[in-house]
Structures are given as structure tokens and as C-alpha cells.
């Protein structure tokens, strides 16, 4: 099947959506589908326009200047869809490129699908733009109204979006590479660079350092906990607009910058506990990465944690938004963070069952079904989940 896959983030950009979209494209191509990747050209990249990839124009996203949005007119995309003749157009990220791609596909009678990956409307609150939230949600609903199928990572998010008027929702889930993220990658030399003695627990956070990620909560909780546990170390992997301010506020924490691949896996495996305070993530790939690495997980009972973590069994959970409970949850995780603990062992076992191949095969099968139903006639508004 010929598929046009449209995304506004893709490697070499480093974020969960970019890495997940690249994995999906790789899977579809390996399965024998012909995939035309459409994305904005990143800074320093050469232009490209061939049967496999079109790098269109774009510009920096406000508040996220290292990321780019794509730009292409509906008319230009209609011409491209006629030339490429895709059976389906899939958009992985919301933005002007995605909206134009879906609109052009519908005008040409082509099947469409879209991912709902990011709660952009909820981000507004964290940038003192709360009044924008209903407008952003309305825009997202308008975009997803043009898709024959909308993929969401969890059943809870599907229910939330359905209540907000979104239709044709399909729960796709997420997976983890448990061969890459493995406790066996623990690195004593890396721990030594963190000034962590053999018995010192290391608390890890991985993610973008931005207001919507709530990283300040994890660092504040660590500061209070280390007052009674002087050996407790804190390592933060990632970058973003808050990094400089957080470093000034927490000079004893280790800010390790951005890491990917095996280097990132070593950082996970060399820690003991994981703090994930985000309340805006629709899933949070880092949750499964931490579980696969056998860490004592502490987070809110939402997104991926609500699906994969059982409080007190393979991790520790707090009621969403309860700041005091988050600190208590983190303390509970640290109390069970010694290497070889039952909590950490069960975390690893949980991740082993979250295999990417099954997730991607289900995604591929749903895409094929959407294309077949569009070819047979109009698709009803009933949910596909």
C-alpha cells in the first residue's frame, strides 16, 4: 500500500514523538508498504524531494524554536497526492502542514488518519495563556474531524476526547525497546561521574525541561528528601527553556543534557529510581523506558502510568495533581529502590510485555482497514476502538 506519512518532527530532532514516528515509518517500510515521508526541512539539512521523502518549507515553533512547523498549500499537496497516489494519508502531529495534508486528501477522496499525541491545549496554562485553551482544543478538534481514524495512546484519553467531541477514535498504545533499555547496562563509571557511592540511591528524570513537564516539582521533592538522605543524588537528562533556571535553583543536581540510544539507556540503568511529575503527557514514553530499565518508578496515576503501573507492585503512584502525595510517592519508591528489589524486578517484567512489534502491527492493520473502508465508501462516525 502507498502511504503518505506527514509529521512536523522527525530525527535528528530528539523527542518522543520524533523517535516514535521514525519507528512507525521504519516498520511500515519493512512490512512492504511504500511510504512517502513528508516533513519540514530542519536547519542545516539539504533539500530533498523524491519518492521516499519530501522536505517542505517551515519555520520555528514559538516557545519551541528548536522544533519546526511545516508549510505547504492545500493546492500543492493535492497535486502531490495525485502524483504519488497514496491509498492513505496519515498525519502524526498537529499543525498547519497536517491540516493542509488532511484537507487535500479529503478533497481527493483519499483515506486519512491522524495521531493525537500532545495535549497542546493544556500547555496554554503553563505559559500564562489559559484563555487560549478552549481555542486550541477547538482547533485540534477541527483538524481531527478531517481524519477517518484518530489514534490515541490510552483508553482514558479516548474517553476524555470523546467527551470533548472528538470522533472515530482508536486506541493504539505504545511500546518499548526492552533490549536497549535494560538494567544490564548499569555503568559504575557513569555513577562515579555523578559522585554516587555504591550505596547511594540515584533519582533520575528524563524529559524536556519546560513548564508543562512540571520538572520543578520533582527537583523540589528531591531537595526536601535529601535533607534526611544526604547520599541521595539527582540526575536530570534533557534540555529546554527551563534548564538554566533549574540549574541555578538546584546546583547540587547533575544536569546531564540530551542523550539518545545506548548513552540514554546507560543513564537509565545506572540510576535507581525515576521521577515523572508530568500531568500533560498523553502517554510519556519515558515511563516504559524507566520500567524496562528496572527503576523504582514514581509518578502520577495518569497517561502511561495509569496503564502499566500498579501502585505498590511495580511502581508508586499519586493522585493526579496532588503535590504532597507526589513527594510521599517518591519517598515510597526510594524506599524500594535498592538493586534487586521486588518492585524493580516487577517493573522490568511489566516492560517486557509491552513489545513494540505488537503495537506497530496493530497500527499497520488499522491503517489498512481504514484505507479499505474508504475505498468501499464513506466511513461512518462510529468509534473504531
TrEMBL record:
Tell me the ranges covered by the Glycosyltransferase subfamily 4-like N-terminal domain, including all copies. 14-178
Sorted alphabetically, the keyword list is:
Transferase
**Pfam family of this protein, just one?**
Glyco_trans_1_4
Q: Which Gene3D superfamilies match?
A: Glycogen Phosphorylase B
Q: Per UniProt, what is one GO molecular function of this protein?
A: glycosyltransferase activity
Tell me the InterPro entries matching this sequence. Answer: Glyco_trans_4-like_N, Glycosyltransferase_grp1
Task: Return the PANTHER family for the record.
Answer: SULFOQUINOVOSYL TRANSFERASE SQD2
Name it: Glycosyl transferase, group 1
